[in-house]
Amino acid sequence: MEQIVYVDGSFVAAADAKVSVFDRGFLFADGIYEVSAVLDGKLIDNDSHLARLERSVGEIALALPETLERIVEIQKELVARNNLADGVVYIQVTRGAVIPRDFVFPKDAKPTLVMFTSVKDIVNAASAKTGIAVKTVPDIRWARRDIKSVALLAQVLAKQAAAEAGCQEAWMIEDGKVTEGGSSSAFILTQDDVLVTRQNSSAILPGCTRKAVMKLAEERQLRVEERAFSVSEALAAKEAFITSASLFVQAVVTIDGERIANGKPGPITNRLREIYVEFARATAT
Ligand code: PLP
Question: Which helix (H) or strand (E) holds 57?
Answer without folding.
Answer: helix 46-59
